[in-house]
Design goal:
Radius of gyration: 49 Å
CATH topology of the largest domain: Nucleotidyltransferase, domain 5
Strand content: 25-35%
Distance between the termini: 102 Å
Number of domains: 3
Order of helices and strands: EEEHEEHEEHEEEEHEEHHHHHEEHEE
Helix content: 25-40%
Largest sheet: 5 strands, mixed
Number of helices: 10
Structural class: alpha+beta
Strand order of the largest sheet: 3-2-1-4-8
């Protein structure tokens, strides 16, 4: 994947460098605002290099290889060695070897300022590295870069320091003395200063062998060339509360209550839907039972009910096609007005077979049954016969046979 290097300084303008995959020659070097640089980052790995003078690189002995415990212990182990209050500092862990862990420390205020600038420009990155750790490195020598008023010295894979160029002779001599047996054989000096009026002899310690190399293309191409995407070469400052996971968690945290309420609402709706489904299932069973009961009353000859609707349609169709005279509908049309004219009379069942209509009726009294029989017989198109009549406590149940008249 192509890479976009952004050198994030305190200046409003930033230097950016596009590097092709597998560290091929630069695609394009640009110098623009962060907002403009954001456009170059789409589809590329964004690596932000920050000024090492804002970061302290050190190491501390830690009696555990567990990273979580190291992160908890490091601030207290370094408390006496740092000027600032450890609560105001962010600590990023590097490699762990020989019982010691490499540490990069930066002020929370500075970290928040860097993160805010990137966020306002719409730049997302997983890597924020002190620019010093992107300098070319060799085991046999220390690498020194002079740029403007700042001198950067890389003394190891994850160690080094940055300070004003004026203090380089004194601080470099102290560092060489403290190195002891690890003192480098020589120094590699890269002068990237725009103004080189001051001779290097005035800023380098005496009696030290050093080699010079050019910096014709500028500082950022040099850093991009020396950058290694390897945990043993760099310390990523985006750890702990500044890691991508933690940043996403911070964005998600305000929505947790809303998400919990939404989940609870979905559960309640699910329960209500289940209750409603159960109610409708019971209602369906009741309606099916009622349909079957009504079907048996209307078609008592059919004993086995499979599909009431289809069976009723077939029976009615059969009734319409039977009889040479009045069919079912003709008989029903002739008898219907008479039945409606008897107050309180109720039709309990209808059966049609071989041109004859059998009606199951419920009437208020035997007198009302006689009245119904007489009125039906007055119809010349009908023949009427009361097949049965039984008196109940408050009504009379009767079966009446109606056929076509001569």
């Amino acid at each position: 994947m192509d890479r976009l290097f952004i050198h994030l300084t305190e200046e409003e303008q930033v230097e950016c460098l596009l590097v092709a995959e597998q560290n091929q020659p630069p695609i394009r070097q640009v110098c623009a605002s962060l907002t403009e640089a954001a456009g170059y980052g789409h589809g590329r790995q964004v690596i932000v290099l920050v000024p090492s003078e804002q970061v302290i690189l050190t190491e501390v002995a830690v009696p555990t290889s567990n990273r979580q415990r190291q992160a908890q212990a490091v601030p207290y182990l370094l408390e006496d060695l740092l000027v600032d209050d450890v609560d105001r500092l962010h600590f990023a862990l590097g490699s762990y070897q020989g019982g010691k862990v490499k540490v990069a420390a930066a002020a929370h205020e500075q970290m928040r300022r860097w993160m805010q600038r990137l966020a306002e420009a719409g730049i997302q990155t997983k890597f924020m590295v002190p620019d010093l750790l992107a300098l070319p490195f060799s085991e046999e020598m220390w690498n020194i870069v002079l740029t403007g008023k700042i001198a950067m010295v890389r003394t190891g894979l994850q160690s080094g320091f940055s300070f004003d160029v004026e203090n380089l002779p004194v601080l470099l001599e102290q560092a060489l003395e403290q190195a002891g047996e690890n003192r480098p054989q020589h120094l590699q000096v890269m002068d990237c200063r725009d103004n080189q009026d001051v001779a290097l002899e005035t800023v380098l310690p005496q009696g030290v062998e050093y080699r010079m190399s050019g910096c014709d293309k500028g500082l950022l191409p040099l850093l991009a060339q020396g950058y290694r995407d390897d945990s043993s070469h760099l310390i990523n400052l985006l750890q702990g509360q500044y890691s991508q996971r933690e940043r996403l968690s911070k964005l998600w945290r305000p929505w947790r209550l809303a998400a919990a309420l939404l989940a609870a609402l979905l559960v309640v709706q699910g329960v209500m839907a289940g209750v409603e489904y159960q109610r409708l299932s019971l209602e369906k069973k009741r309606l099916v039972k009622q349909v079957e009961e009504n079907f048996r009353q209307g078609f008592p000859a059919i004993k086995r009910i499979v599909n009431p609707k289809l069976q009723a349609e077939r029976s009615l169709k059969s009734m319409r096609g039977q009889g040479s005279g009045a069919g079912f509908l003709v008989l029903l049309a002739d008898a219907g007005p008479v039945l409606q004219g008897i107050p309180g009379a109720e039709l309990q069942g209808v059966n049609y077979k071989e041109g004859t209509l059998i009606l199951g009726m419920q009437l208020k009294s035997l007198q009302q049954l006689d009245e119904l029989e007489q009125k039906l017989k007055q119809k010349p198109t009908l023949t009427v016969e009361v097949l049965s009549a039984s008196s109940r406590s408050k009504h009379v149940e009767a079966r009446i046979k109606i056929g076509a008249g001569q």
